[in-house]
Amino acid sequence: MVAVIIGAALLVLALITQAGVLLVQRAHPVRGAIVEVSGASLHIVELGPRDAAGPPIVMLHGASSNLEAMRRPLGEGLAKNHRVILIDRPGHGWSTRARLDDSTPEIQGRMVAEALARLGITTAIFVVHSWAGALGARMALDYPQAVAGLVMLAPVAYPWPGGVGRYNKIVALPVIGPLLAYTITLPLGAVLAEPGARSVFFPQAMPDGYVRETATMLLLRPREFLANAHDLATLKAAVAGQAPRYAEIKVPVTIISGDGSDKTVSTHIHSQPLAATAPNAKLVVLPGVGHMVQNAAPDRVMAEIEAMIGAMAPSTAAAVN
């Protein structure tokens, strides 16, 4: 009898989840183009003039989010004078990937590089946040000709003490992870999304309507929740493998992080050692700023991006449009 009750409850939760997926996707439809690459389909939104002077600006979001997290605080402002490319990382937003295990910066960097090549973009400035800090660093190592410069916002770059949260490890497990993702994740996440987002913004206040305007609820779809958990569960080992190579990054790098107020990604563990290791790195530490640097100080971030573009020689800044 107990097994029957549990089975019925799981069936109900699975039906609620599927209905929720339909509602969330209807509320946040595809906004850009789908670019097919090996092992993934990437959702890409382009802003600004395609023939703008200087390199295009590619923006890559962190964990538990999508390209909308980079659009409003930065992308739309930069698009007044630059070509801006916003990308849903593989498995996030409206991007898909064939394998959940394609979760490392190395693999996702290959997919992003292939998508940009299909768009005719040979070099760009990359603006990367949090998890995507490791991705941007990896792309600068593996595709140095494609990366004209890196602007890194509260980036993850090195191994850190501890893990990434027990629930991410559980969700990344076979059988158990999918069972949870396809039953309780969306109903429970709908309740926890707002407080969870607020904690990432601390000590800044989360902007009104942030969860709605950034399509955060897309994360709660089973396929994306599983992909996000795999990204987080494999990240520590991935950065441990690539960190010894950071001295090879030759392009200009600007790292912008909060001080000790960032409780999500430690500036001391990540930003400071990276700035001391990459030969052409500049570190900007913003007092009292937490993890969401792009929201807390968008004008400063845009100024640093403009400064990087302005310092580039014409031959370096030229891009195929």
From TrEMBL:
Q: Which InterPro entries match?
A: AB_hydrolase_1 (IPR000073), AB_hydrolase_fold (IPR029058), AB_hydrolase_sf (IPR050266)
Listed Pfam families: Abhydrolase_1 (PF00561)
The organism that produces this protein has a lineage beginning with:
Bacteria, Pseudomonadati, Pseudomonadota, Alphaproteobacteria, Hyphomicrobiales
What are the AB hydrolase-1 domain coordinates in residue numbering?
55-294
Q: Which SUPFAM superfamilies match?
A: alpha/beta-Hydrolases
Q: Could you state one GO cellular component term attached to this entry?
A: membrane
Please tell me the species this chain comes from: Bradyrhizobium lablabi
State the protein's name.
Pimeloyl-ACP methyl ester carboxylesterase
